[in-house]
Amino acid sequence: MTPTLLQAADWLFVADNLGLLLRGTAVTVALTAASILLGFVVGFPAGALEVYGSGLPKRAVERAGVVLRGTPLLVIIMMLYFVVSVSDSAFATATAALGLRSAAYQTQIFRGALQSVDEGQLEAARAVAMSRFEAIRHVVVPQALRRSVPGFQNEFTIVLKDTSIAIVIGIGELLTTGQNLYEGGRSTAALEIFLAVSLIYFVLTFATNRSLDRLSDRYAVPEGTA
Amino acid sequence: MGSVVSVRPLTVGLALFWLWLSGRLANDFLLVGSVGVGRGEPFVPVAPFAAAADSAAALAASLGPVGEPVLWLAGGFEFAAEAIGYLPLLAGGIWTTVLLTTVSVCLGFALALPLSLLRVYGGRTARWAALSYTELIRGTPLLAQLFVLYFATSLTQVLRGVPGVGVGFVPAQAFWVAVISFSLNSAAYQSEYLRAAFDSVDSGQLTAARAVGLSKLEGIRYVVVPQGLRLALPSWTNELVYLVKYSSLASFITVQELFGRTSTLASETYQYTDLFVLAAVLYLALVVTASALMDRVESRTATVGVGHTRQ
Amino acid sequence: MTRPLLDIDDLYKSYGSEDVLEGVDLEMDRGDVTVLIGPSGSGKSTLLRCVNQLTDIDSGTVALDGTDVTRPEADVNELRKQVGMVFQDFNLFAHLTALGNVTLGPRKVLGMDADEARERGREHLEQVGLLDQADSYPAELSGGQQQRVGIARALAMDPELLLFDEPTSALDPELVGEVVDVMRDLADRGITMLVVSHEMGFARSAASDIVFLDDGEIVEHGPPEQLFETPEADRTREFLGRLQTEHEGTP
């Protein structure tokens, strides 16, 4: 039982099942993309509401955020799965859980970014006769989006890693695939399997960070030395 | 901000929660069999709440469509009755979660401090090694790390052999595997916070320390580290909250912390809704307590001019 | 008699218990260049902001070309199309190039198509001598250049009236000249300007009127030679004296 050494036979087992692991990787990537997207679609307006809104809608968004940020993802998944019964599809449930929680964090990111744009920008836009909405849309939002890249980058990798928690409702994502290989296949290859799985995650987070760095550089507003 | 101690419902709720938890644990570990109530037996009887729920439901039924609000009230009483029944069974889980979190944060800090100093002041090789460690840990899921340690190493067997593990107050080996995994993970994140903090301490501070005759090591020890730790305090709030929530992953390796207890109970009773809502409320209580506690620490250790001082 | 372009009548404004403007009357005709001077806190900037409604007024009226713009039902955006503003700290849109700053208003507010806006934007940049910096971002420009883009941005809306809120006070002394030159050029071309500034060179050479504001009211009002050479009020004399020593004090 004791995995004594990294054995060649065990690595061969991993290599033989590389196709399965890559399929799991595809599920992980799809789950990440869907969740980040849902998080953005909900989180961006919610962030704007926290900055520019008032009254009940603003308070409701703030409360929901506190609950979503203060509850373990595991609990959120189980609540959506058993309590709300979001969908028969485990993938949809996991997307909803990861996406809503990400929305709560993305709200914070966008709120901070919107608030960091200087008040004078809004005033100058108003002075060229833009309505408040136009001023926010054309002047504040483009600047805020650029400033939210580092926070967004962080959020992206968190979601990517946390897709592994969806193992609890049995989605065939990467970690689940590894777990199945270990339990249903070759238990002596545990170290090799989980190291391979971890390596894939690492490559994914690394690649994500690098591409977002690129994106950020591409759209950065030049700052001269003048 | 923190000094305004008005009695808010939240404060009262948190106080009640901790009063109940300490009373419960004292009862279960120390008083049971003598003066206390039995283990798993609630302090407050369930019957009145269940009865209230029944009569409210009956009233709602007699009122017809107008009885909707009364029906909600009935639901509230029902949840209260369920919660009172389950809480004693979850107390041990909460305790394990608290223990898991605090021990891991402390051990993580003990590892993170040297790690971050190597990042800032170490030689080329040491810097590179520390950087690789933090990037590898931060680039992979905590759950995968937990699985590597639990399923793929002989850590469990080794820990099982350690005298005292699993005896009396001391939790069993799976708990310690989780502690080791969380500490290694937290060390990477904490070392990032600390590195950023040490980097932001003005380099003139170390120069000044050298100028008054301290060695480099003493300068770091007495001048840079104390300032850096204060700067890093807000990040610890994040780290503590992070670990409270992610300690739930220990349930995957059989640790019966709050989430583990909850799902075990849920699969026995099929009361998934009430139990997971209750778990969410309990986690929120822990998270809110953690950030309130850190706010207190921050205002206690605040030094004018170091970091952001609260007004 | 032609009606004045700007007619401010009995304007009051306070922030909480702080009375900032206490019954200001001011008229400007087309082509006038009026310079507002006065000690800090005298209400100059507030008066300026009341004209384009960046600040709400408490009572009184502000009429532009005979239309009361302070009525509740008045469209502030219609007003702002006709009144341009140049800010003390430039407030250039940080994410847009110089040309982008100048064309945003015409495109989004006036509905001009992109090509036309760009073409006209280039003309406005040329007027302020910055055509060669059309593709530079604000952070790549010097303070003086940023302010000139700010002026071009205001001009691009083809306003009836241009407001300047201390346009040179955030600039290093050696950069003031280029901005003042542009402003003088605009004055020569007959653009109506209401300017808050202590730039005496500009006030003497380009202004048609000087208004001295103190404690929320207009103390004295007249052509530059009269107000600077033979001020009537003690407060005006005192202020001008102080201004002079301050200026001699700076190297």
TrEMBL record, chain A:
Membrane topology label: Multi-pass membrane protein
ABC transmembrane type-1 domain ranges (all copies): 25-212
Residue spans crossing the bilayer: 20-45, 66-84, 189-208
Any one Pfam family match given in the protein's UniProt record, by short name: BPD_transp_1
Organism: Haloarcula salina
Subcellular localization: Cell membrane
A GO-annotated cellular component: ATP-binding cassette (ABC) transporter complex
Molecular function via GO: transmembrane transporter activity
GO biological process: amino acid transport
Family: Belongs to the binding-protein-dependent transport system permease family.
Keywords for this protein: Amino-acid transport, Cell membrane, Membrane, Transmembrane, Transmembrane helix, Transport
Name of the molecule in the record: Amino acid ABC transporter permease
UniProtKB/TrEMBL annotation, chain C:
Chief subcellular location: membrane
Protein name: Amino acid ABC transporter ATP-binding protein
Entry keywords, A to Z: Amino-acid transport, ATP-binding, Cell membrane, Membrane, Nucleotide-binding, Transport
An annotated GO cellular component: plasma membrane
Location within or outside the cell: Cell membrane
Cell membrane among keywords: yes
Keyword Transit peptide: no
PANTHER family documented for this protein: AMINO ACID IMPORT ATP-BINDING PROTEIN, GLUTAMATE_ASPARTATE IMPORT ATP-BINDING PROTEIN GLTL
SUPFAM superfamilies given in the database record: P-loop containing nucleoside triphosphate hydrolases
Domain ABC transporter stretches: 6-240
Gene3D superfamilies listed in its UniProt record: P-loop containing nucleotide triphosphate hydrolases (3.40.50.300)
Membrane topology, from the record: Peripheral membrane protein
Organism in which the protein naturally occurs: Haloarcula salina
TM annotation in the entry: none
PROSITE patterns: ABC_TRANSPORTER_1 (PS00211), ABC_TRANSPORTER_2 (PS50893)
Family affiliation: Belongs to the ABC transporter superfamily.
Signal sequence, start to end: none
Single GO MF descriptor: ATP binding
